[in-house]
Amino acid sequence: MTASSRPDHARSRRSAGDRRAQLVQIGLELLPTTPVQELTIDEVARRAGISRSLLFHYFATKREYYTAVTRAAADLLMTHILPGHETPSEEQVTGMLDRYVGWVETFRESHLAFVRGAGGGDPWVSEVYEETRGRLVDVALTALQLPDDALRRQLVLAWFAFTEDLVAQWVLEPTMTREELLELLRDVLDRLVPR
């Protein structure tokens, strides 16, 4: 190695935090076409320009890597669907639903794998899934200006399960317009959750 090549090499080195963020970002970029459980470490390492063994320097196991990608995807979902502070409360839930439908349209297979992985008892997926659903319940109760009690939390969680299933089916086979879907989901929520 010549002295003149050392600065280039030093510039291409990343901090551990930057490298972890890069590897998670690669996983996120693959999610529209590949469920997280099907991401191959070899492909992620290839895209990062590193060896497979170096990836395991940043993530001790595949599960740790998959958990990091799943958590990052859940955070993106929350950021994507949360209403803005300026949104009137009566429009917040409908806006969140519309953005959620768009998310599932874009990430259908990955979203299904996330929901099924949680339902299938995969502990690392279940943990992230339950955290995400809990945050969504908090947002929905606040947007609807409802008390946060055990009954309403349970009912909103049940409504989320219904919404996940119906939206996933609708994306695959639309049997109504998007507006009709949103209206139906909002109507079910209003009937299910007492004010």
UniProtKB/TrEMBL annotation:
InterPro entries: DesT_TetR_C, Homeodomain-like_sf, HTH-type_TetR-like_transc_reg, HTH_TetR. It comes from the Bacteria. PROSITE patterns: HTH_TETR_2. Pfam families: TetR_C_46, TetR_N. Transmembrane segments: none annotated. Keywords: DNA-binding, Transcription, Transcription regulation. Gene3D superfamilies: Tetracycline Repressor, domain 2. Residues 17-77 form the HTH tetR-type domain. Residues 40-59 bind DNA. One of its GO terms (molecular function) is DNA-binding transcription factor activity. Signal peptide: none annotated. The keyword Transcription applies. PANTHER family: HTH-TYPE TRANSCRIPTIONAL REGULATOR RUTR, TRANSCRIPTIONAL REGULATORY PROTEIN (PROBABLY TETR-FAMILY)-RELATED. This is HTH tetR-type domain-containing protein. The lineage of its organism: Bacteria, Bacillati, Actinomycetota, Actinomycetes, Geodermatophilales.
